[in-house]
Amino acid sequence: MNKLRVGYLSLVKGSWINAGLEGQRQDALKALSELGAEIVDCGLLVQTEAQAQEVCCKFEEARVDIIVAHFITFSLGTIVPGMAVRLRKPVIFWSQPEPPMNGGRIAANSLCATNMNAHALWKMGLKYSFVYGNADAAMPELARQLKVIGCLRDLQRMRIGSLGGRVPGFYTSNFNELALREKFGVEVEGITLLELIEVARSIKGDELAGALKQIKGSCQCKVSDEELNKGAALFAAFDKLQKKHRLDAWSVRCWPEFSDIYGIGVCHILGCLTGSGAPAACEGDIYGATAMLMVKALSGSDAFFCDLISFDEKGDTGLFWHCGAAPVSLCKPGCVPQLLKHSIIDGGDKKGIAVEFPLKPGAVTIIRIGETRNGNGYRLLSIGGEGIDTSQMLHGTPLTVRFKRPAAQLVNQLIDSGFEHHYVLCHGDITKEIRHMAGMLDLELIEL
Question: What's the CATH code, domain 5-155?
Answer without folding.
Answer: 3.40.50.10940
